[in-house]
Structures are given as C-alpha cells and as structure tokens.
Amino acid sequence: MNFEHLRALAAVIDEGTFEAAADLLRLTPSAVSQRIKALEASTGQVLVRRRVPCAATDAGMVLLRMARQVQVLEAEAAAALGSGAASRAVMPVAVNADSLATWFVPVLAVAAGWTDTMLDLHIEDQGFSSQLLRQGDVMGAVTSNPVPVNGCRVELLGHMRYIPVASAALHRRFAGRNGVDWEGMPVLKFNAKDILQRELLAAKGVEQSPPTHTVPSSEGFLAAIRAGLGWGMLPELQLCEELAMGSLVLLEEDMHEDVPLYWQSWTLDSERLHRISAAVRNASRGGLRVPTASSMAERTPRR
After folding, report:
1. 233 in Cβ contact with 189 (< 8 Å)
2. For position 71, what pLDDT does the model report?
3. How many CB atoms lie within 10 A of CB 53?
4. In this structure, what is the dihedral angle of CA atoms 81, 83, 92, 146, given to the nearest 10 degrees?
5. Would you state the pLDDT for residue 82?
6. Ranges in the chain, pLDDT < 50
7. What is the CB neighbour count within 10 angstroms for residue 277?
8. Parallel, antiparallel, or unpaired for β 187-189 and 212-214?
9. Is 119 exposed, middle or buried (0-12, 13-18, 19+ CB in 10 A)?
C-alpha cells in the first residue's frame, strides 16, 4: 500500500467510475485500474465492486477510511511546510436535513472563513449516518447512535425538540368538541424512515393510518404544513414566529419528542477535524436543548 494506490481507491469510489477517477487524477483509466489491482494484490482481497457506480467492498471500506485519513494528514503536513494550495483538504461530514436547516447553520458560517478546508456535506437521516462513518465516506457525523463506531469518538450534543403542528385552516377543518380528529386529518412524513408522526398517532390510539403525504425536504416539509397539506412533527427551532403569528397551530400542548443528537468523529489527531468538531459543539450549544434527567430516556429519531 502506498499513497498513490490509496488515492486511486478514494477517487474511484468518490467519482463512481474508473474513467472519472482517471480524469480527476489526470491519469489514464488503465493506470487507475493498475493501481487498484496492485492494492488488491497487496491485501489479497477484492476492494472495489466493478459496477456503475463503483462501490467499496467491506475490505475496501477499511482502506477507503485509511485513504481519507492519509489525505487529511498529507494536507496538514503540506500546510506545515507552507505548500499553499496543496494544503487544501476536503472535510466530508454527515448531517440530517432538519439540523442543517436550523442549528447547524453557524457551522457553515464558521467554515466560510476557512481557506484550507472545503466542506462536503452528506445529508442523511441521523439514525443511519453512523453507517457513513463505518464506510469511510465521512469523517464526522451528526447521529442518533450513542455507541461509537470503531475508531471514532462520540459526544452528546443535546436534544432537538419536535412538536405536532398544522396550519390554522387545516386545524379548523378537523377540530371538534372532542379535540382533533387524528384519524381523519391528513399527515405528512419526511420519508420511509420518519416514524415521529406514526408514534404520536399510536400514542393517541389511532390504528388505521390517515391520508399520508411524503415530503423529503426540511424546508419543503414546513412549506407543506403551511399550505395545509397535512400536519407533522416540526423542530421547534423552525417555528420561531409561526406559532406566535397564528399561521400554524400547536395540536397538543404537552405532546413533544426530544430527539438526542450525538457528534461522532474519527479519533484521528487532525487540526482540521478538531476544528469542525469545535464548530459543531459550539453551534449545538446555541440551538439544541440541554439534556435533563427526564429527557434521557432516548428514543430513536428518524429525521
């Protein structure tokens, strides 16, 4: 294993094909293929599944992660030597859509001042983002998983509160003397992984699913609720003015879901990784709820 072989592996997985990797590395596809074959010969295992797009095998994921680490350390060594543009590095990070639309924004503002690091954001449900760490696709992730991925450190950032809301017009249509008609009122979900609304309905004893719309966008989810398409669980961070103005209505005063969020990152001793971790930590302090004893009964979030 050498740096050029590892760099070729990362390029093939990132770009999806040997041809695209060759363009990135300014080599011929044959040269890239030879480097991958040499790497596979040195490890005695198949590292790349030759399909479109190319994917790493389990053994390939181990070396892909190593390749990412080498790239970061190489860039930091170049920076220490004053190599200028050669010291720039990509920092792949996974974050869920609701966080990116709310409390994570200050991280982007801090990163805007970095001249040596470029963010590569992967949008993934926090219940599944730890898999990206295992695969070596990202160096850090906002996740709901409190168990550290092998070779990673983990810290609790705080809790993100979700509350059930609907447009005032939709609420009027389905509000009666006995409260909200949960069985009849249309509901939204973010995607197939989103179970927040389903859990509330189960708590209300609703067995038959009401009409359900899927809106796989954090901003679009809020817009759909405003438009009256259905009700949904929204982060309270997105509702600074909506409830006060009366455009949205809180459906249940005491009903909410506090979602625990963790930051997992490689244990690599990297100044860039420490920097992004500090930015995430500081942003969470300004946006997430501080966990209390009553909120530590953690439930698996899905958005």
Report:
1. no
2. 83
3. 12
4. 10
5. 76
6. 294-302
7. 20
8. parallel
9. middle
* Radius of gyration (C-alpha) of the chain in whole angstroms: 23
* Strand, helix or coil for residue 259: strand
Q: Find the helix packing angle between 58-80 and 3-15, rounded to 10°.
A: 120
Crossing angle of helices 29-43/3-15, nearest 10°?
Answer: 120
Strand residue runs (E) in 19-151: 48-49, 55-56, 89-95, 117-123, 140-143
**What ranges make up the beta strands (E) of the chain?**
48-49, 55-56, 89-95, 117-123, 140-143, 152-167, 175-176, 179-180, 187-189, 212-214, 232-235, 248-250, 257-266
Residue 163 confidence (pLDDT): 95
pLDDT of the residue at 179? 87
Tell me the two tokens of residue 117: 């690091």
d(CA 262, CA 156): 4
* Residue 25 β-bridge partners: none
What residues contact 206, with CB distance under 8 A and at least 6 apart?
Answer: 182, 183
Q: Helix-strand-coil percent breakdown of the chain, rounded to 5?
A: 45, 20, 35
